Amino acid sequence: xxxxGNQIIVADMRGTDRRVTAEAAIAxxxxxxxxxxxxMAIHDPRTSGTDYFIEIINSDGSRAQACxxxxxxxxxxxxxxxxxxxxxxxxxxxxxxxxxxxxxxxxVDMGTPKFAWYDIPLNEEFGDTRAIELQIGPIDxxxxxxxxxxxxxxxxxTFWVKxxxxxxxxxxxxxxxxxxxxxxxxxxxxxxxxxxPDRMILRTWERGAGITEACGTAACAALVxxxxxxRTNRKATITVPGGDLVVEWLPxxxxxxxxxxxxxxxxxxxPSTGIWARSEAA
Length: 282
Hints:
By secondary structure, the protein is an alpha+beta fold.
């Protein structure tokens, strides 16, 4: 499946205690037919009152705490199976819901943002994470500097620019900043241009996946960081390379993410080895 071009594998692991291994994820991602950004593994519920437990695996085999585009794909998959439109999930990041509207757009509760340096987390204490000390380029003339930092269940920084986000070599400095010593759990790196308080353009280097067409948690982090720095309203359209997402920071502090999901094809895969086969019926 995909969420605005963010390539997602939805792995149905219900009824088994097996997990998708890092080795399997790397093997699957190595092939052009199955190259992906995240695997969303649907497991039987662990907690009463929830429908399913979701495990998220990046293309490098590492585990992720959250993936908004992937959760929309999960909701669409389950809605097609059950006829239901709303589901309650658990992940390592906590509890959340997902719901498909009549028009096919899917809204996912992304939880509450965190801004304390130790919650993001950062390896250095910052009293105010609306602008942390981090830059690219010469000290006296940095290309990018002073990003806003936040956690949406996973760590994000948002660099603010006043010109075209495509004019920055994110593919070069993204991996360097992802693995910067400031970030003990690595980090998602975004460049944001605010067009109006209700619209933003965003590019993201996604931790464990690289540059992607869309990163839902990055869009959420950019919106809340925009509100904190008085750049945006609490609801805005975030344009990513794959299309538009709508993000809203609700009065109860939860953030919702709304956008489409798209089915591509189905098959079977061995979660231990990554050996796969495409089904005849797609």
